[in-house]
Each structure stands twice: as structure tokens, then as C-alpha cells.
Specification:
This protein is an all-alpha fold and about 500 residues long. Helices cover about 75% and strands about 0% of the residues. The protein has 23 helices and no strands. Helix 3 runs parallel beside helix 8. The chain is globular and about 65 Å long. It starts with 11 loop residues before the first helix and ends with a helix.
Length: about 500
Amino acid sequence: MVLFGKREEPKLSEVMDQGVRRPSNVEAMNNQHRKSVSNRGLTGASALTVRQSIFPITLVTILFFLWGFAYGLLDVLNAKFQNSLNITAAKAGGLQGAYFGAYLIGPPTWAGWVVRKFGYRWAFITGLCIYGIGALMFWPSAVYRSFGGFCGSLFIVGSGLSTLETSANPFIATCGPPRLSEFRLELSQSFQAVGSVVAPLLASRVFFKNTNDTDLSNVQWTYLGIAAFVFLLAVVFFFAPIPEVTDADMALQAEQSSGLTGYVDKPLRKQYKLFFGVAAQFCYVGAQVGVASQFIMYSVESAKISHAAASDRYALGQGLFAVGRFAAAGLMMLMKPRWVLLVFMTGVMIFIAASMGAEGEAGIAMLSLVLFFESCVFPTIFTLSIRGLGRHTKRGSSWIVASVSGGALFPALTGLAADHMTYHKAMCVPLIGFFVAFAFPIYLNTLCAKELDGFRESKIGYTDEDGLAIGDIKQEERKASVVHEEKGVMPTEKELSD
């Protein structure tokens, strides 16, 4: 535990003892330097306003779109590799194991350590560089037509993407007013979904329009282009103005919100909501990937259509997934996020069960609606699970990202079930995973409602009638000093520290 950054987490007493040295949110925006930032020190980013957070959030949202685009392109390139090398279904399962296995290993170990030790900026840069190296490794794998090399390249790419997720998801969730956390991550991931939809369409209609299945020359050059692009992005993030949000900042923010949320600092081993969230995310992601991996074969079986027509149906389903994320983001401005998660998970349960019995185009429609309702689940489970973690926010986030490794288990089980029965009946495997995930919003709405609603009611990061940021210690101290001067008395040290 010490090896992977436990020492980088502050104690609450350390955070509160920094009262005299607490920087303001203005200092957090001015000190967007390229040096690493101590995770145990305050930066002033706990009270960033909407206006201050817009640019860094936009920049990382662009990153979400671009890696969503690259990920969508990766699926097409992987299919080209599999067709060219005559990779069997069993070996294809090994490819998924290599990719999702990186999520199991990286986030709770070295990726999480980079985020806590050096901060978000360097985690972005590290993830992009690893991703680029993985893309470059596909070139020799294509030249030698090596399955082992292909698996190794996918593992490196998965390591890069898992590092990006370990940094980008908590950054979006914590950069800005806490009451908008779920909305920010939902909206940012909506653009990632758009990138994932656009990339395969461009690949099939532009990049590989006039190539055959055994020709890997275009694939090699496309991977080279992806590598060059992500290395360029790493340079952009080196120079980009990004405020650092430390675990100390999150501990201060949680302490400031304690009157509304009932927050009490606890050791990580007692963060039961986090552990349930990790289990729910593991089962949900596994079930989601299980549905996606069998969607085309399900469509062929259900409506007796060609694989090409089934691929078009899947593209429509992916479009609904992207639309669902934007819809969920809008709903979060009107409804409590815990309610939105419960509604969408209920929709998933209804339509995955319906898809097991429906035939023809109706069955495809049911499974497409599953994709629509899946849309908000991952980012919402993520943000609600890290609510109230305080000084454990970064480590807890890395565990939730590691639960994406569920995608290595459920597709194989779904495929195995399909081999022994029909693809319709095989949907019982994702149904089990979704059922476990469905228990999480029920738990949140029954036992964690006060805590979650308290963060939603928090005004930290908003401005008061005097135009000062609520929750910004320096501005509140100056306001207290002005009030006392008008009364002709000096504020006490205790009043300033409070």
C-alpha cells in the first residue's frame, strides 16, 4: 500500500492545520504550473467557481471525445486484425482479457500512484504516452502477423486508457462546484460516446472503403496516425492551464459541507458506499460489454438479417447510447442524480428481460433500448460512489476505474451461454450483472439519501450577494475582516480560522 501512494493521502488534521496557509481559488487558477503538486497540500481548488472551471473542463472534455474517437476506431482496426489473422472466437476472448486486464492491474497500482504523487496533469500525459506506445506496437505486430504481439499491444493501449480514466473521471467530477459533479461527468462522457459512434462510421466509409480483409497496410498506417495524434495531445496537456485538485482540497470541501451531508472522516476500510459502488460498476460494465459483444449475433438470430444489416442496427443502438447520455445530463439539472440512476437502471432491467422473449425486429428494438438506458450508468455510479470520500477521493476513484475489468469476464460467459443455447437466452448473463448493479441505486436512495442530497444542496463554488466565492477561505477571511473593521473591532484568530 505504501508503494502505491498511501503516504500521499493527507490526514484530516494535516489539512485543517493548514488554516493559515490556505490559498484561494484565484491562486489555484494562477498556479497552473507544470510542476507536480503535493497531494497533501491545499491548492485552493476546492472552491473553484463555474466560470473558473469551464476552460479546464472543456479541455478534458475534448480529450474524452478524442479518445472516444480513437477507441471507436480501435474496434474496427481490431476486427481487421482478427479477420486477417483468422483469430478464433476463443482467441478473441483472449484479446478482451488483455485489454480489460490492464484495467484490473493499472488503476489500483501505478496509475493511481501517478495521480496521487504527481497530480492530474502528469497522469494525463503519462496515459497519453502509454497509449501512443501501444499504438506504435501494432506496427510490428502487423508486419509479423503476430497474435501474441497483438495481445501485448492491446494490453499497453488498455494501460494507457485506464490511466487516462483514472485521472480524467475524478478531475471532471471534482473540478468545480460539488453540486454539479454528476452533471459535469455525464456531459463530458456524452462527447466520448459521440466519438465512439463517429469513428466506426468514418472507418468503414472512408479509411477502409476499398481494402480487403487480409490487407493490413492501411491498418498499420492508421495506428501510426493514432500514435502521432496522442503524442501531440500529450504535448498540449504539458502546456495547458490545468488547476490541480488534491485530496487535501477534497477533504476540506467535505468538511465544509458536513453540516448538510453529515460527513465524518473515516478510514478507507469503512467507506462501504465505495465498496458497493466498485462491485456494482464491475458487474455493470461486464454486463454492458456482454450485451455489446453479442448484439450483432443476437440481431442475426432474432430478425434473420445479414451481418451487415445487423451492424447497421448496432450503429443505431450506439447512437441511442450517445443520445441517452445527453438526456441524462439534462435530467440531472432537474432531478436528483440518485433518482436518475434508479430510473435508468430500471429501464435497463425491463428491456434486457424483454429482449430475452421478443423476436424479430422487436427483439432488436428491446436490446437497442437497453443501450439507451445504459448510457448514464457508468458516470453516475462513479460520481455517487466517490461522494464524501474526502481525502480518499483519488484512491477510491482508481478502484472504481479498476472495476471496468468486469468487461473481461462477462462477454466470455455470455458467449459460452450462447454456444449452449440461443443468443436470446444468453442475455440472462448480462441480466445477472445488471441486477447486482440495480441494487446500488436502491441502496443509495434508501440509506445514503441525506449525504448525497447534502452535496447537491451545497453552495460551495457559487458566489454570494457580494460576488465572493462561497467556500473560498481567503475571500471569506477578507469579508470577515471588513465586517469587523466596520464594527470597530478586530477579528479573533479563531474567527479567521473558522
